[in-house]
């Protein structure tokens, strides 16, 4: 497929804007020395170009999208309708408070609702992404220890199965990262945890359910041990989809949490946004929350705030979508979301584990992890090959090679919005691929064969990305 610059023809164009009737003389300093290199293309060809791009893409609207730990699920259209209302879209964060009372009510209502769901006492919506929510939570922990004169706590404990953003966020916050191992059940090794706890421990970062899709059976013991050592417990809310409305992190020992509104709470995500990673906390940490907030309809700022982590009040329209999602489902529907997510994952796991060994053969939560290590050794077909083969069945690949504690891992998250018929089709696809692995492994390794673009050189693309069009090459031709 040609790039839009390759479709460009000098002199072509389209009349989108009316003729300018205002003249403003700009100073020379901000002016370009030459006109920008923009493609010259007719409206007809422009429409065709983007239509072809859309057809070449694969998303939730195209079919099953079991991308593990990312909760790529259907987002009800009513959320988009509400987020498109002029009263929400045509506002500015600096306009007088009495002119945006409906908007402040949205923020305050969502704050109270999410605190009730998570068992937290207060929350900020400033963080614009999950990783930024992690970073904010760690800054709260750091501010807490500093306020007590306990600045010798320099370590954050993180399990070896953690999301990659956890150690990165801890390092950004100035902490030393201590990795503890998982046991044979895929959960935290309590002996290893005990060995690393001490006066140097600032806190523990934990996802529960964890990244192998299991709820840690020792969670109360884990949080108790960390607290007894003087540390705080941080809950990574990336996998809250499995327990929302059923388990409140604040009730099982967690002091601070971040949520992904763009995942669990039904806002489209991927491709860079929009995102929102609000950070909630218990009362004793609320004094450190960042930026200005809306509390009981009033604008306020925490007494010992860590400062802003992003502009103004956060990604407001994502909040509108999240509140719409929660109000639509109600107190009865929210826990049903979690139950369906867990049911769908266990259904698929049971239907596939006779062919694809699961990393931990037990009841899973919202996702499960298969290990293709034995298949790779016997048939030279990798997890990557199976993921690519799914594209020929119209299925987006699941997460590959994560978590790192599972060799040749494929992580599948069906989400709660998929029907049994869709799951059965996906199961049939996995089973058909397995039969092909047995009969013709080389054919699987050559997948995909029906997509517009076949197997890519992903290593080369990552190491030598081409991020802009080379106009010099065009002139040379």
Observed structural traits:
477 residues, 3-stranded antiparallel sheet, pyridoxal phosphate, 7-stranded mixed sheet, 2 domains, alpha/beta, globular, 12 strands, pyridoxal phosphate binding, Aspartate Aminotransferase, domain 1, PyrdxlP-dep_Trfase_major, 10% strand, 17 helices, Aspartate Aminotransferase, domain 2, GDC-P_C
Strand order of the largest sheet: 1-7-6-5-4-2-3
- Total helices: the number is 17
Q: What are the low-pLDDT stretches, counting only 5+ consecutive residues below 50?
A: none
Number of domains: 2
Q: What is the CATH topology classification name of the largest domain?
A: Aspartate Aminotransferase, domain 2
Number of strands: 12
Query: What structural category arises from helix and sheet content?
Result: alpha/beta
Range of helix content: 25-40%
Assigned CATH superfamily of the largest domain: Type I PLP-dependent aspartate aminotransferase-like (Major domain)
The fraction of residues in strands falls at 5-15%
Major β-sheet profile: 7 strands, mixed
CATH architecture call of the largest domain: 3-Layer(aba) Sandwich
Mean pLDDT: 93
H-E string: HHHHHEHEHEHEHEEEHEEHEHHEEHHHH
Gyration radius, in Å: 25 Å
The end-to-end span amounts to 19 Å
Shape: globular
CATH class of the largest domain: Alpha Beta
């Amino acid at each position: 497929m040609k790039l839009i610059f390759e479709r460009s023809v000098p002199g072509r164009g389209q009349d989108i804007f009316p003729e300018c009737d205002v003249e403003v003389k700009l100073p020379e300093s901000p002016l370009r020395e030459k006109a920008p290199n923009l493609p010259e293309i007719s409206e007809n060809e422009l429409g065709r170009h983007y239509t072809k791009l859309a057809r070449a893409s694969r998303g939730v609207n195209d079919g099953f999208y079991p991308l593990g730990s990312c909760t790529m699920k259907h987002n009800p259209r009513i959320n988009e309708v509400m987020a498109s209302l002029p009263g929400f879209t045509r506002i500015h964060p600096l306009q007088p408070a009495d002119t945006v009372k409906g908007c402040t009510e949205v923020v305050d209502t969502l704050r109270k609702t999410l605190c009730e769901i998570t068992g937290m006492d207060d929350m900020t919506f400033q963080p614009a992404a999950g990783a930024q929510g992690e970073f904010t939570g760690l800054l709260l922990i750091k501010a807490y220890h500093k306020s007590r004169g306990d600045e010798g706590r320099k370590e954050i404990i993180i399990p070896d199965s953690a999301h990659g953003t956890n150690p990165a966020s801890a390092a950004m916050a100035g902490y030393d990262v201590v990795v503890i191992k998982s046991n044979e059940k895929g959960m935290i090794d309590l002996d290893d945890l005990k060995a690393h706890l001490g006066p140097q421990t600032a806190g523990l970062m934990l996802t529960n359910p964890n990244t192998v899709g299991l709820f840690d059976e020792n969670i109360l013991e884990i949080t108790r041990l960390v607290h007894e050592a003087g540390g705080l417990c941080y809950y990574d809310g990336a996998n809250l989809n499995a327990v929302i409305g059923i388990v409140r992190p604040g009730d099982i020992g967690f002091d601070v949490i971040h949520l992904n509104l763009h995942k669990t709470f039904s806002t489209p995500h991927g491709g860079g946004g929009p995102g929102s990673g609000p950070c909630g906390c218990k009362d004793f940490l609320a004094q450190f929350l960042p930026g200005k907030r809306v509390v009981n309809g009033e604008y306020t700022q925490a007494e010992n705030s860590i400062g802003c982590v992003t502009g103004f009040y956060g990604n407001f329209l994502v909040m509108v979508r999240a509140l719409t999602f929660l109000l639509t489902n109600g107190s009865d529907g929210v826990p049903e979301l979690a139950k369906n997510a867990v049911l769908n994952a266990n259904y698929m796991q049971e239907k596939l584990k006779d062919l694809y060994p699961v990393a931990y053969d037990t009841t899973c939560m919202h996702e499960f992890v298969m290990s293709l290590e034995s298949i790779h050794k016997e048939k030279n077909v990798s997890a990557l090959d199976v993921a690519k083969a799914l594209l020929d069945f119209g299925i987006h690949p699941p997460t590959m090679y994560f978590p790192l504690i599972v060799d040749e891992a494929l992580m599948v998250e069906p989400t709660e919005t998929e029907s049994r018929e869709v799951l059965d089709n996906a199961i049939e696809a996995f089973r058909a691929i397995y039969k092909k692995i047995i009969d013709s492994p080389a054919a699987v390794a050559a997948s995909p064969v029906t997509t517009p673009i076949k197997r890519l050189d992903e290593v080369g693309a990552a190491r030598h990305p081409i991020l802009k069009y080379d106009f010099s090459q065009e002139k040379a031709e």
